[in-house]
Amino acid sequence: EFTPGAVLKGGRLPRRPDGLMGCCNGHTQVHPVSPNEAEPTLQSRVHGPAEMVAQEKAQVEEARYKLSDKASLAAFLQDADIRLIRAPYLFHLRRHNIPLPRRQEAEGEVCEKDSVQMSALVTHSEVRKWAAGSKDAIICSVSHAWETREHPDPCCFQLGHLVDTISLYEAAYFSEIWVFYDYTSLYQFERETDAQRESFARAMGNMHVMYAHDCSLTLRIEGLTPPHIWNAMLQDESKKVPVYHVPSGSLQALPLKELMHNRTPYLQRGWCFAEVQWSAVRGIAAQNQRIYGFAGKSSSGKVPLTPEAFAEQMRTSAFTHRNDAETVVELQKKVFFERVTCCKEVFFENLLEEDLEKLVESLEHYKDLRSFKLKNWEGTPKLVASLAQVLGASARLEELYIMRGEPDRIADLRLYANTDPDVGEALGEALGQLLQHNCTLKKITLGNNDIWHKGSEALLEGLRHNDTVTEIDLRYEHGMDLDRKKAEKIVAAKRPVQNAFKRFRNVVFYKILADWYLRQGKVIVLGDKYYSAQYMNDHPIKGIGNAGAQAVAKMLRENRSVQEIYLHDKRIGEIGGQALLEALRHNSRVLVMNLNENPAISDEVKKGIQGLLEANKEAVRRQKEAFFATLKELQRLSEAKPGMGKSILDRLEGTTWFDDESKCRIAHVQSGEIVWDPNVGTRANSTLISDGIILAPRRPSAGAHGVAHRVVKQAGFMFSSPRWRQ
């Protein structure tokens, strides 16, 4: 199984600014504009005068950087003079609500970690050590929208979500976390020296490297700052953002209303969508993370589009200059074929039906594919048949892994809870046909695909005609209980020595992806530094000890998204317990902390932790009551003042509120009216305020993981109706 630490300790590619181009913003004048005003031009926004654009483009040397080699990524970072940002510096900015600085100002900044002072930006010598293997680091490239021409994140909203995510990774791994964020990593307008202009030009000439490299992780911030936060800052002129001021030629702190706004949605921006696609060409889907933003029913960003499909998408994307679209289309085509044609292993997970459709279209280009893994997916009988047909045509495929969730992981199962029951049977029949003609497959793993009688008989028939499969794992394919022994006999009869058939109850330890767990807002399995498992207690994990507990405690001082932590029987002592207690004094978001079977923690410490958790739950209860009052007031307003109420409810159309524990609907907006669940009156004072229950909104489209209410919770959308409205 893919281990995050094994792949993420790599580099990342550069990124462009606001969806238009590159990562910087230039401008010729500063004035307030309407949020609906057209996006600034590439020249004015990114580079400055058009003559400067031509000059900088002329300076770009043709360079080819391998997308799988650490040394190549390090060379790109050095050649283009790109500086990565240390995680402790981002923690400092978030703690003090300071907007991210330009690269020019960040070069003189310092931060502190474990009482040791260091530069805010990673040095090139450190990157070289990382490439040589003498230093550990996880390189994260951030894909985001520029919300104003002058500054991408004037409200520090993106910064908050970025810190919530990287604080979890810092707790999970021994490695340092280095972040590429264009505004701070690349020189910004105005670039005053030839060296700065050349640096920017070199970076923009190979921007895809930061998002397509095997040794990097993409963090996508797909949502804009919510209107209530944006509007509050617009009205408060005391809150200012340090930006480059063209008239004075210097850095000045300006209120938000004096900046040029750009509220174009993330996925409608051409360069943002290109970054999503560059990130998707990696073989491991877990290296491409959406850390904020609701997933549309047709966009998980996990699957690479064919060049033709990408070009079609670019025709409707926001580009001020259509020449930019042509450039991006050509670059995506180059990157797609460079990565896909030589890709040997892929692991896709959390795919919606539309994603699977795109994957089937793209798979024919994977000419050298040896291992295909698919986990957590939606599909139709026709679609899975097409998938099997494409895989069957592969001339080198040796391993096939198709799983719709692991045992006991309820959140995984939600994704496909309402799918067509015939899909599993169609999959079994299609794979049976594949096995009859395929002569390269050696290993097959199937689980939770709902393959029953017809599908299992087809698989058995396929095995009878197949002479190459040496290992088949059906231990989680519960519908095949009656046929498992038959399959074992068939395979064993052909290869009695080589056969490695795995019985249903043989527990195999899975290194769980940080992707899945972190997106649930839980600290459950924490990488190669220590383990903390809610679902893995059957495995021989010896515990995380005081060191692991201290790492969790350190994370809780920065993170504002995690709400449940399970540390059952992890050999935590008094020192670790004290660290967790102290961390909870500074964290009001955690509601559940399971420390059972850790006898070395004193009763006094456990009682203190429980008291703080109860205080957090009480705050949640009061916030829930306020939320109910807000909804009821909104309903009253819509009845008393139909015009005003209707305009608000129109924006909420289709929104549904669920009880996060029971999954029962509380209320929803339909045809401009709030419709309450019949039992909400009694549940509002019982279930909703019981232990460990979080109230969170869910859109009709569940999103990439099928659990949008958890995505919302991870994003920090809690207990504030204006924020819920988003």
Structure characterization notes:
The chain has 726 residues and is an alpha/beta fold. 41% of the residues lie in helices and 14% in strands. It is built from 29 helices and 21 strands. It has a five-stranded mixed beta sheet with strand order 1-5-4-6-9. Strands 10-11-12-13-14 form a five-stranded parallel beta sheet, with helices on one face. Strands 20-19-18-21 form a four-stranded antiparallel beta sheet. Helix 4 (70-79) runs antiparallel to helix 7 (124-132). The two termini are 36 Å apart. Mean pLDDT is 74; it is low at 1-51, 53-62, 407-418, 495-541 and 680-726.
Can you give keywords for this protein?
726 residues, alpha/beta, 5-stranded mixed β-sheet, 5-stranded parallel β-sheet, 41% helix, disordered C terminus, repeat
Question: What integer is the average pLDDT?
Answer: 74
Q: Percent helix among the residues?
A: 40-55%
Write down the oligomeric state. single chain
Distance between the termini: 36 Å
Can you count the helices? 29
Topology:
Layout (H helix, E strand, L loop, with lengths): L3 H5 L33 H6 L2 H10 L10 H10 L5 E2 H9 L7 H4 L3 E4 L2 E4 L4 H9 L4 E7 L13 H16 L3 E5 L1 H4 L8 H12 L3 H4 L4 E5 L5 H9 L4 E6 L4 E6 L14 H11 L7 E5 L14 H8 L7 H19 L4 E7 L1 H11 L7 E7 L3 H12 L6 E5 L6 H5 L7 H16 L5 E5 L5 H12 L6 E6 L7 H11 L19 H6 L2 E2 L21 H14 L5 E3 L7 H11 L7 E3 L8 H38 L1 H10 L4 E4 L5 E6 L2 E4 L3 H4 L11 E4 L9 H8 L5 H4 L2
Parallel strand pairs: 4-5, 4-6, 6-9, 10-11, 11-12, 12-13, 13-14, 15-16, 16-17
Antiparallel strand pairs: 1-5, 2-3, 7-8, 18-19, 18-21, 19-20
Helix pairs in contact: 4-7, 5-8, 8-23, 13-15, 14-15, 16-17, 17-19, 19-20, 20-21, 23-24, 24-25, 25-26
